[in-house]
Amino acid sequence: MDPELINDCVHCGFCLPTCPTYALWGEEMDSPRGRIHLMKQHVEGTPITPEMAGHFDACLGCMACVTACPSGVQYDRLIEQTRVVIEREHVREPEDRAVREIVFSLFPYPRRLRLLRPTMWLAGRMAPFLSRVHPGLGSMARLAPRVEHRQRMPRVVRARGERRAVVGMLTGCVQGEFFPQVNAATARVLALEGCDVVIPRGQGCCGALSVHAGRAEQARRLARRTVRTFEKAGVDTVVVNAAGCGSSMKEYAELLGREPRFKVADLSEYLAELGPVATRHPLPLTVAYHDACHLAHAQGIRDQPRELLRGIPGLELREIPESAVCCGSAGTYNILQPQAAHDLGDRKARAVGTTGAGLLVSANPGCTMQIASAMRRAGEEIRVAHTAEVLDASLRGVRL
């Protein structure tokens, strides 16, 4: 915990109305400035107590406070540093430790996730039993998506027409195994816009889940492998279609102590900069676009996905009330803090329901699973899609 970064906070309170946990509970220690106060106490000699750890664990890391702060407090860096300290110094209860070990021995490893796919149809039925074992396990089961079939990605997808660029594409862990259709759509969209898309073998987790949970060594190990993979591929830009992954990869220099030999760009960010050349076919859809926190707050990317969607003829874009408030997914938060995530998911589902949209579009797999689950609880089924899938349908002239 960096004392200089801690002292940047003047405790003005502008962060309070933006903080999801403060909105839920109205508890000062569950606000950004309250947590910074606890960080200061620890730096000045107070040991980490279970109560302090609980307040830090309750933070979603959504970074809405970073956007709102007039003093430029780098809360994103502070909470990541704090979580490393928590993991090093705090001894958790055995049940909590066990669930965390399951999560971080499973989700960052695509091959292990792949073994789960044939059992996904059982997940929902097992959720009540797993909830009795531990609420987080029940939450994990309820969120599990149905994966119809795996789509094996080629090593290179060639540009359609004149080649305008060569880019790498991250396939990811959760995205690659649970949402393979999103990766396929991403590659097609880039190719239709004139890009050769290099998809190296040997990819896995970028380390984002581990970074956000304070598991620094695991994060560095996964990040090094990702950097080696794309540097060996020789690409100058790596395009990412998952908000949390893109946010962490843009901070690789700080995590690894050196700049990678490539830049990282979110799909919508890259396409907006590249400019459209492919013809958009009409899609008669009413769409609600959800701002993933690690896209809007951490990367500052809000306008680009909306511009891309508005560029599709026949598509009507509707804004979601309280769009800056986290849906409760936040990486592994909806597993490790299931009740708070449940409440935030219900709040987001109500907001989405007011739009009357027939399709919810998001740029992060965790958000997609979280909001779809909350909508089902509310009895309001809604179709969900990634920005890439909507663009892909329009560019190819097919129904979504």
UniProtKB/TrEMBL annotation:
Binds 2 [4Fe-4S] clusters. Residues 1-29, 50-73 form the 4Fe-4S ferredoxin-type domain. It catalyses: glycolate + A = glyoxylate + AH2; (R)-lactate + A = pyruvate + AH2. It comes from Nonomuraea longispora. GO terms for molecular function: 4 iron, 4 sulfur cluster binding; glycolate dehydrogenase activity; metal ion binding. This is Glycolate oxidase iron-sulfur subunit. Its EC number is 1.1.99.14. It comes from the Bacteria. The keyword Hydrolase does not apply.
